């Protein structure tokens, strides 16, 4: 990766405090970052670099919604895992974000399927010396997952916990009485001796961000070359829709972006999504009830109102091959295209 440009280095008066917010798919990273942005010091400018698995970006627009202009800057790295994009794509996105925002703090959200050690190693390298001050890495975890071998034995799930300076057990309101004890036993087996905090709905304390990173790159082996297709971000079409499939690290994805003029029947859309059983589903859709956010985690689908969005988009992620063409046809049948 090339060195930071002289122009950017001169703009950085002091190294920018930087935090990695990581965790597996559906654990609530974006919710936690949104909470932090709402509770940051009002006189500070914060920047967020977001990377999502799959073909389209949804979290970036959600995080940007309702933020005070000039106080929060969001930049997305096109799909795939950020660790694989830690070369030129990540460097370009990060340099652009730093130059544009000149932030007081930088938050980085890798995809839930990325190796965070690779990201930390890149950010801790000489290229960002004097530019970034790497502080605490926060790893969000759902304690209920440690009894599920699909998570407990997953290399990325384990590494996310191993790189943490603070482990945050999120969604504690949904736990069984022994969930925390099982999480603690799992952490001892890694082994991980890291402070454990507990919260609900991603309510992260600003104090948890403070402190020097304890990351040591020498403790982590480079991840194997990813079995991945090239990811390129889908742009909203002037009319109609576009879709694209992807595959990386054993996970399949498909994303759709519909022109703003498309309007979907809310009840039929809810019925369709309720019948889907993907590992992850997130969507922003223009419906006959207005703009809606749909979120499916662990088979539970929720919807909430949004003020506005530039277009309709949906991202599905599955550990199994799926008949994306069939879903494509069903989605089209629910959308009524208005005048462009």
Question: What would a concise description of this structure say?
Answer:
Helices cover 26% and strands 26% of the residues. By secondary structure, it is an alpha/beta fold. The chain is globular, with a radius of gyration of 20 Å.
Can you give a write-up of this model?
This protein has two domains: 6-215, P-loop containing nucleotide triphosphate hydrolases (Rossmann fold, 3-Layer(aba) Sandwich), CATH 3.40.50; 241-337, CobW-like, C-terminal domain (Hypothetical Protein Yjia, Chain: A,domain 2, 2-Layer Sandwich). The protein contains ten helices and 16 strands. The protein has helices spanning 6-11, 29-39, 59-64, 88-101, 116-123, 149-152, 155-162, 179-189, 266-274, 324-334, and strands spanning 16-23, 46-51, 72-77, 105-109, 132-134, 138-141, 166-169, 196-198, 241-248, 251-258, 262-264, 280-287, 290-297, 300-305, 312-318, 335-337. Strand 13 and strand 14 form a beta hairpin. The protein is globular and about 55 Å long. The protein starts with 5 loop residues before the first helix and ends with a strand. 43% of the residues are buried.
């Amino acid at each position: 990766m090339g060195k930071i440009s002289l122009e950017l280095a001169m703009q950085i008066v002091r190294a920018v405090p930087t935090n990695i917010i990581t965790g597996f798919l559906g654990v609530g990273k974006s919710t936690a970052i949104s909470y932090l942005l709402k509770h940051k010091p009002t006189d500070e400018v914060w920047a967020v670099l977001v990377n999502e698995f799959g073909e389209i970006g949804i979290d970036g627009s959600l995080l940007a919604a309702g933020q005070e202009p000039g106080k929060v800057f969001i930049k997305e790295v096109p799909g795939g895992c950020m660790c694989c994009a830690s070369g030129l794509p990540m460097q370009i996105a990060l340099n652009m974000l730093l130059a544009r925002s000149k932030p007081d703090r930088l938050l980085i959200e890798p995809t839930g399927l990325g190796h965070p050690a690779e990201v930390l190693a890149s950010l801790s390298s000489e290229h960002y010396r004097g530019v970034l001050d790497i502080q605490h890495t926060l790893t969000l975890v759902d304690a209920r997952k440690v009894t599920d071998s699909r998570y407990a034995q997953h290399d990325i799930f384990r590494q996310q916990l191993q790189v943490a300076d603070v482990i945050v057990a999120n969604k504690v309101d949904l736990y069984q009485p022994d969930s925390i004890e099982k999480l603690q036993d799992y952490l001892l087996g890694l082994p991980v001796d890291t402070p454990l905090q507990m919260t609900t709905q991603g309510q992260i304390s600003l104090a948890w961000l403070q402190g020097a990173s304890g990351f040591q790159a020498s403790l982590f082996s480079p991840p194997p070359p990813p079995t991945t297709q090239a990811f390129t971000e889908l742009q909203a079409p002037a009319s109609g829709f576009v879709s694209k499939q992807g595959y990386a690290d054993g996970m399949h994805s498909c994303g759709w972006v519909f022109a703003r003029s498309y309007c979907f029947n809310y009840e039929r859309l809810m019925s369709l999504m309720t019948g889907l059983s993907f590992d992850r589903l997130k969507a922003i859709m223009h419906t006959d009830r207005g703009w809606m956010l749909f979120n499916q985690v662990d088979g539970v689908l929720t919807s909430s109102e949004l003020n506005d969005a530039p277009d309709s988009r949906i991202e599905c992620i599955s550990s199994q091959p799926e008949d994306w063409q069939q879903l494509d046809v069903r989605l089209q049948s629910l959308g009524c295209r208005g005048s462009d």
